[in-house]
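Chain A, query sequence.
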Amino acid sequence: MADELMLEIVTPEKLAFSGKVEEVTVPGSEGEFGVLRGHASLLSSIQIGELSYTKDNKKVCYAVDTGYAEVLSSKVTILVEGAERSDMIDKDLARKAKADAEARLAKMAKEDQDYEKVKAAVTRAEMRLRVAEKG
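Chain A, predicted structure.
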């Protein structure tokens, strides 16, 4: 299809996805943005959130960690610390991770050097659960 766009989702461990898609929605640090073929080139940081793409009129969702997106007119490269497809997320494990992180956070002072790290773990677990429901 002439209006397809190449998407690559890359983590430190693996190539999570590589293929042609119709559109991509990215959780940018300045807000969510969509990309279609022919989009203006840009670089953006990515926040913990839901990344999705449409292929053959079917939407596929990933829970992604922080990272970067490079958008070119016919290719989007996503470089993130972690990416899990919605149907591959273990909901029980995500619930446990959320509970553990919330328990740790409740015992910490905001001034603690690990406070933001644990807070991000709560956010990550919540996002994984939200995206898992779409699988």
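Residues 45 and 68 are 4 Å apart (CA to CA). The mean pLDDT is 93.
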